[in-house]
Automatic annotation (TrEMBL):
Residues 11-21 have a biased composition (Low complexity). This is Transcriptional regulator. Residues 1-21 are annotated as: Disordered. It comes from Actinacidiphila cocklensis. Residues 35-92 form the HTH lysR-type domain.
Length: 331
């Protein structure tokens, strides 16, 4: 059994809060008293080059701007830092002391910048995507191919699942960007519509519905056992919502966890299926499936990208989101 270390003096929630409050007060006060990095960088350059003019040229600013920056630094600190003469600029005793402090601050700032760039590089070296089945199978391959051209060094992982599962993964921080087909977006996610889709009722050519001359009544569809995606999928949500006014939720003949499985069963003649027009375009063109019009039933839906609320996608995730606004290349 592992023992917790003995608490040290001050190791308590109250002490932790006091320390955080103290750090906040110090940081707030420092913001008004510590010079900005530009002023300290100028002072260090003057100490090294012996001339305000040469320091200005090295930093890419005009000499009047450098003079103004130095005067502002001296006013802020309340001491003279540089003595100017026709032969150049020399540090005062106070200026030499401040310069040593400034060097340490600039070194720390450089370390901070390097660390921040490393974090950005780590973020930009991988992208975790979660997507509903239709988007994952029929849209994302083209988008990810285009993304690879922009970010060839980025490792992309894709988790495909139903819309409810995708939303949970994004909210839990397990994916940087998600794509869903459902009707609703959870409150802890932000979303953008990236496209539109339509569900179709499809049957094998030998099914009696394939020869119908009139649209199928929605009530008959509601009463007929169908090949369906599982509960929680965007396809199932949209279908159940559409059938709510015509007898209730869809009746499952077979409930399958992937679009491909439902489509394969429909092509094999197992029964009618309801699938995205994106998923069945090739089968309709090859006459392996037949679309059955349904009277009075709107099965259009929006496709959305989702990400944690209040945190805009960045790096490759931002670029992938931008690519979704363009037509995906087709094979």
């Amino acid at each position: 059994m592992t023992r917790s270390p003995l608490p040290l003096p001050g190791d308590s929630p109250a002490a932790g809060r006091d320390a955080a409050d103290s750090a906040g007060r110090v940081a707030g006060g420092l913001a008004g008293r510590v010079p900005d990095l530009g002023g300290m960088e100028l002072l260090v350059a003057v100490a090294r080059l012996g001339s305000l003019g040469r320091a200005a040229r090295e930093l890419g600013i005009s000499q009047p701007a450098a003079s103004g920056r130095m005067r502002a630094l001296e006013r802020q600190l309340g001491v003279a830092l540089v003595r100017r003469s026709p032969g150049g600029s020399r540090l005062t005793e106070s200026g030499a002391l401040v310069t040593e402090w400034a060097r340490k601050v600039l070194e720390a700032a450089a370390d901070f910048d390097a660390g921040a760039r490393a974090l950005r590089g780590r973020r930009d070296s991988r992208l975790r995507v979660a997507a509903s089945m239709t988007v994952a199978e029929y849209l994302l391959p083209g988008w990810l191919t285009a993304l690879h051209v922009r970010h060839p060094g980025t490792a992309v992982s894709l988790a495909a699942g139903n819309s409810v599962l995708v939303a949970r993964q994004v909210a839990a921080g397990e994916a940087d960007l998600g794509f869903v087909e459902g009707l609703d977006v959870p409150a802890d996610l932000d979303a953008a519509v990236i496209g539109h889709d339509r569900l179709l009722v499809v049957v094998a050519p030998g099914h009696p519905w394939a020869a119908r001359r009139r649209p199928l009544p929605a009530a008959e569809l509601a009463a007929t056992p169908l090949l369906l995606r599982e509960k929680g999928s965007g396809t199932r949500q949209v279908l159940d919502a559409g059938l709510a006014a015509h007898g209730g939720d869809a009746v499952a003949l077979l409930e399958l966890a992937s679009t491909t499985a439902v489509k394969t069963a429909a092509v094999g003649g197992a029964g009618p299926a309801v699938l995205s027009e994106l998923a069945v375009a090739d089968e309709l063109s090859a006459h392996r499936l037949v679309a059955v019009p349904v009277a009075g039933l709107d099965l259009r839906r929006e496709l959305r990208a989702v990400w944690p609320a209040g945190h805009l996608p960045a790096g490759p995730a931002r670029d992938l989101l931008g690519l979704t606004r363009r037509p995906a290349p087709r094979d």
